[in-house]
Amino acid sequence: MLRSDFRIFSIFFSFSVFIFKKLIRGGTLVGFRHVFGMVFLFSLMVFAAGCGQKVVCAPPNVMIGDTCCLDADGNGLCDAWQEKESEQEPEIVYTEPAAEEPVSEAAGGEVSFAETFAQTWDRKSYTALRNLFVKDVMLRYSPQEFNFLARRVDSKLGITSVSLVGVEDGAAQYKVYVGSKSTYVSADIDGEDGGFRHDSFYLFDDLTADAACGDDSSCFMSFAKLSGDRNYCDKAGSLKIDCLSQFGVSKSIIEKIDGCIDILEYYGRAECLTRLAVNENDIEPCWQAGQDKQVFECMGEVAAARKNVDECDAFVSSRGYPGTRLQKTYCILGYVRKTADTDACAKIDRRGDVMLGAMQEGCYKLSFP
Questions:
Q1: Which residue segment(s) compose the domain that 346 sits in?
Q2: What is the phi-psi region of residue 248: left when phi exceeds 0, alpha when psi lies from -120 to 50, beta otherwise?
């Protein structure tokens, strides 16, 4: 029976007793006992009717105790009660970012190029990867140099894999995994020679021996030999002598070079190195002379000692790069000052360069000792 029905019965029964007592006190000659019995019987009938009544809830509601309510989760509690009890801050749940959109074929050849680039980079085929960059990058390094430097920088960064994200507005985006983390890098794709090539970006922007080797002396020594550039031996630390010996430079010359370098006065140091180069018939000391003018005039004096101005071409390009017309002019001037052979001035390649033209004119007018 519902609590509300019980309260109605209690009120009705109390009221019946009250009436009965009033009738007795008033001395009424009616059969009070019969009246009371009838009232009491009626009360029992009401009580029985109340207890036998069943309250039916319309689906999906169910009866829980004396309450008709919704219990969608079937846990024996009204959902409305649970909602009030659970009014609190929602739990923050971390979700992985949505997967990248599949690469659209709308970009045509650029997408195919970028996919090839990503796959080549992922395989760490750096010699092949070099050929996918614009010519400025390719000319900066030989295939061997690019492979050496890229592998070293890759190893320092800890790159594990690379994948293409997409191509948009002529730029490719790649996802680069570094250890357990990842980063996104982008770079422009340029049309070149009827195909596509990548601009420099990410680790390829700082593809230098300093970035690749850091404090590793043996790395600088290896790169000096690979590149043919003895300048890197100066960064080889305790391995400098061994590094230079790869180029046929004797230990004794290195020790003498160090003695000249200890001279603090700039021009005195350059003069010491030039004398050493001429005496040893070796241009190695010249490379330590400082500015281009002193370096290549020093070489010109060695060429003069050998009585061959054409040595200037070989000297200037001896460290792995062709050199410039200005550097060769300095060498020729150093040669002419020592030999007075003004015919050598004709070897200055002026080719419309005003400054080189003036230097050639000055070469013919040199005052000789």
A1: 250-364
A2: left
Query: What pTM does this model have?
Result: 0.52
Pinpoint the alpha helices (H) of the chain: 3-25, 32-52, 79-85, 109-122, 126-130, 135-140, 143-157, 209-213, 217-227, 240-245, 251-261, 266-280, 292-305, 311-316, 325-339, 354-364
C-alpha distances (whole Å) from 87 to each of 91, 94, 307 are 12, 21, 98
Query: Is 58 within a domain?
Result: yes
pLDDT confidence band for 368 (50 / 70 / 90) = low
Residue 295 Ramachandran class (φ > 0 left, ψ -120 to 50 alpha, else beta): alpha
Question: CATH number for the domain including 155?
Answer: 3.10.450.100
Q: Which helix (H) or strand (E) holds 165?
A: strand 159-168
Q: Which residue has the tokens 């492979």?
A: 147
